[in-house]
Amino acid sequence: MSRKISVLLADNSDYFAVPCANVMKSQGLDVVLTEKDGKAVLEAISHRQPDVVILDLFLPRLDALGVLEGMAHLDMKKRPRMMVMSGFDNPALEREVMAAGADYYFLKPFDAAQMAQRILSLYGEKLPEESRSTQRKGDIASLEMQVTEIIHQIGVPAHIKGYQYLRDAILLAIEDDQIINAVTKRLYPAVAKKHGTTSSRVERAIRHAIEVAWDRGDVDVLNTYFGYTIHNERGKPTNSEFIAMISDKFRLQLKIS
Known about the structure:
This protein has twelve helices and five strands. By secondary structure, it is an alpha/beta fold. Helix 3 links the parallel strand 3 and strand 4. The longest helix has 20 residues, at about 135-155.
């Protein structure tokens, strides 16, 4: 193609959108960020005429269904491919979104590098040669970004120590599914070594982070990841349960991808 495939990503957050855009740009796409707002997305589609739009199902002012409906009133030379993402696995909602005109419906978290390759394949393109050597780095950066986003969604504040410890613990558990069976002997020491602290402090900080999330987090998001697997009498999951459930969900998503 004589020009790069243009992608409009309906998010401009530093912790999610910017790293995601950087990974996709490294794969050869022209990525532009816009405000995570339905009406702003419609304006950006009209102004930029992108090839692909990636947006959340739930947006302020106008959700993805409203955006899909509003596109019928835009003056466009071509209709972009609409890729709608959601944190909720709901078949009925998926059918509604697809019936409204979406081209793809997928669950978060997603791998930005693999998403870029999927978009390239839609247009008969291949991953640029210079990008292949850095694809592994892109995959790692994308995974870290996705884990960070999930921790944000769950409600763990970024300023507490348990936030970083929890993120590193989840990444280690994704890489090695057996480490969760040796939390005190392997997982905590590995995180502690990276941060120059002790295993007991890592354990306490992660426990505090989970307590904060359970007290202040979004109930719907928590139910999405933990559902009814946590015993009601205990309220919140243990450190190992929390890390195992999040890492297992990621590992399953990666296998599906």
